[in-house]
Amino acid sequence: MKKLLVVGAGFSGAVLARELVGLNDVQVLVIERRAHVAGSCHTSRDDETGVMVHRYGAHIFHTSDVEVWDYVRRFSEFFPFVNRPKASIASGVYSFPINLHTINQFFGMKLDPTEAARFIARKGEAIAEPRNFEEQALKFVGRELYEAFFKGYTQKQWGCDPRELPASILTRLPVRCNYNDNYYDSIYQGIPVDGYTALVERILDHQGIDVKLDTPWEDDMRDEFEHVFVTGPLDAHYAHRFGRLSYRTVYWDRAVHCGDFQGHPAINYTDMSVPHTRVREHKHYAPWESHDKTVVFTEFSKETSTHDEPYYPKRLARDREILRDYAALAEREHKVSFLGRLGTYRYLDMHQVIREGLDFARLWSAAAAAGGRRPVFPESFRI
Questions:
Q1: What is the pTM of this model?
Q2: Phi/psi of residue 341, nearest 5 degrees
Q3: Fewer Cβ neighbours under 10 Å: the N or C end of the chain?
Q4: CB–CB of 64/188 below 8 Å?
Q5: Are strands 278-281 and 293-303 parallel, antiparallel or unpaired?
Q6: What are phi and psi of 255, to 5 degrees?
Q7: Alpha helix positions (H), 66-112
Q8: In angstroms, what is the C-alpha Rg of the chain?
Q9: Does the pLDDT of residue 50 top 90, yes or no?
Q10: Which residues does the annotation mark as catalytic?
Q11: What is the C-alpha separation between 228 and 328, in angstroms, rounded?
């Protein structure tokens, strides 16, 4: 029986491992350098309050992909949850993403949907092809809303001028001329009742899968396996041969209070005078539970150093040049594939990672059965 190695026990590695053992006569070893599975989706109970905490930042599962939705519900019950963040700016707390309520509250008006659409169109600047985040925002919402809701928050979150960031980042933030304050447009939305870590543990619970925690990748491991699938950082896998790809990371200050601290799961702080980016109150991510105390995490963003967890790929112009070198090197490999947010240096949500894991397992298995060259990157990978 062939032995395969999956590096990383987050959603990407777990789904891939599960599908590989279902499609092939193989034994899969999953190694994880952390002491737990589920990667940055890891959840566990807070010892002091009993609240289920999203240890690396809150995650709300959302998708319009029926197969992905059915897949995760094989391993966990999901409680419906709609993500409705708020934004705290100098003049008050507003509904976010920007919707009709935000527009009317911010400008002190009572516009209907048609009037609001015309109003925002007049506010938007005439920029035919936005070249960066700032120009995209100015085209969408105009300078007043951009400077109130986007500019400072973006600078804090990404650590650079918004004009250095690609315009594509802003396409993930809708602007609505109705009172829909749902952050996502996805059909299916929810949070696993017993947390993401339990869900991933069940995905990995298969006789064809072995899991080793506290086990980092070492280069000589490749000799023991027919193929290696890497879901960790692409540049780290190659010992940063061409330089480091830049990421933003986040860290938190934890506090415990009695009762209810802010009455909401997440409030974003957009003003540069406030050093943190948002405050999360984790018990509100599990409204089916009841707790007397509450645990609050104040979130800060910074550049990733050598000892930090990488979270958000920046993908600036210099990064893409470095990425090309790593991708070319990877394509010369014969026994290694890369996938997931870190393995392909792309911003991916959970549902996209799962879809990619399902598709890549099928793609790799078909190539292996045909005796052809095994794929190195997912078909959706672009630089």
A1: 0.95
A2: -60, -45
A3: N
A4: yes
A5: antiparallel
A6: -145, 150
A7: 66-73, 100-107
A8: 22
A9: yes
A10: 172, 176, 248, 278, 299, 347, 349
A11: 17
